């Protein structure tokens, strides 16, 4: 599932191409992927694109918004018209035939025909969704209203995470980081990377943590997520940028998916375990 760095990369990419464009038409190829509580959107212009947790929010004119969750295999792929590509000197690469080689693909669920190009919502497993709703109702949506704080916000502090840890003494720290009602955007990949950065074993119970470790986890969260954004996210399976290219963070992971390989820091062999039914990676020496 795309995590905060991937979704942020999608938001920034779409922001470069979609702002100011008008929606000419919409082709819904899978009705379960599109949910609406408001009126038609033809003719409305894209005014703003933002992120909340792992959700993409596209604000349109006349106070209407698209709320999008990519879930496991969702993609938002943008293809400009030839005229727009030449005018703006855009270079779009679409390297995988079944997802982004030719649009629409067999996994395309919704097509937004825009004044300067086309936006494709692809979703192999059909878990993702697009909701059309009044902008003022966005924060009341069942997905948005239960989210915790943003990791880059001033509210995400050592004191905040320490208070959560004290309330959940029997939970392991990795599960706490994955809880979207606590802090948003962290999934399985980045949780492993964050805890390696902090030198904390993911199996450690919250009542075994001290405040210094908590401080390192908060700092590691911000550092690792910023690094993920810098490298345009992690492409291991389905994730692609709006231009159709892969992220590069997979080339810079310290522990995730590196079981039986030497730690980049101490050369100890990385170990993979199962924690709450999720593959979990750590260095036995750096994260005792």
How is the secondary structure organized here?
Elements: H1 4-18, E1 23-28, E2 34-36, E3 46-52, E4 55-60, E5 64-69, E6 74-80, H2 82-88, H3 97-101, E7 108-114, E8 117-123, E9 129-134, H4 158-167, H5 173-178, H6 188-198, H7 211-230, E10 271-275, E11 278-282
**Total of DSSP H or I helical runs spanning 4+ residues:** 7
Work out the radius of gyration. 20 Å
What's the domain count?
A: 2
| Sheet with most strands | 5 strands, mixed
Summarize model confidence as the mean pLDDT: 93
CATH superfamily of the largest domain: MutM-like, N-terminal
Straight-line distance between termini: 28 Å
Shape: globular
CATH topology term of the largest domain: N-terminal domain of MutM-like DNA repair proteins
| Share in helix | 25-40%
Q: Give the CATH class of the largest domain.
A: Alpha Beta
By oligomeric state, this entry counts as: single chain
SSE order: HEEEEEEHHEEEHHHHEE
Give the strand tally. 11
- Spatial order of strands in the largest sheet: 2-9-5-4-3
Class by SSE composition: alpha+beta
The residue ranges in which pLDDT falls below 50 over 5 or more consecutive positions are 92-100
Strand content: 15-25%
Q: Per CATH, which architecture of the largest domain?
A: Alpha-Beta Barrel
């Amino acid at each position: 599932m795309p995590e905060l760095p991937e979704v942020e990369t999608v938001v920034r990419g779409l922001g470069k191409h979609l702002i100011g464009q008008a929606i000419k038409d919409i082709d819904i190829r899978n009705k379960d992927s599109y949910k609406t509580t408001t009126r038609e959107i033809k003719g409305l212009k894209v005014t703003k694109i933002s992120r909340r947790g792992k959700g993409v929010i596209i604000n349109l004119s006349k106070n209407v918004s698209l709320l999008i969750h990519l879930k496991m295999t969702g993609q938002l792929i943008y293809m400009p018209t030839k005229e727009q590509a030449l005018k703006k000197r855009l270079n779009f690469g679409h390297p995988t035939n079944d997802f982004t080689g030719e649009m629409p693909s067999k996994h395309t669920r919704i097509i937004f025909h825009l004044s300067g190009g086309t936006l494709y919502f692809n979703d192999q497993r059909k878990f993702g969704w697009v909701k059309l709703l009044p902008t003022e109702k966005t924060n009341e949506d069942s997905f948005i209203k239960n989210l915790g704080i943003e990791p880059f916000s001033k509210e995400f502090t050592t004191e905040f995470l320490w208070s959560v840890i004290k309330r959940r003494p029997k939970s392991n720290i990795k599960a706490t980081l994955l809880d979207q009602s606590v802090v948003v955007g962290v999934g399985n990949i980045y949780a492993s990377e964050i805890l390696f950065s902090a030198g904390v074993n993911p199996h450690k119970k919250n009542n075994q943590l001290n405040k210094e470790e908590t401080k390192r986890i908060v700092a590691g969260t911000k550092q690792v997520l910023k690094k993920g954004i810098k490298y345009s996210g992690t492409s291991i399976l389905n994730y692609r940028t709006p231009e159709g290219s892969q992220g590069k963070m997979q080339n810079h992971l310290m522990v995730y998916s590196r079981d039986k390989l030497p730690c980049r820091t101490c050369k100890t062999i990385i170990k993979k375990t199962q924690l709450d039914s999720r593959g979990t990676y750590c260095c036995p020496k750096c994260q005792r």
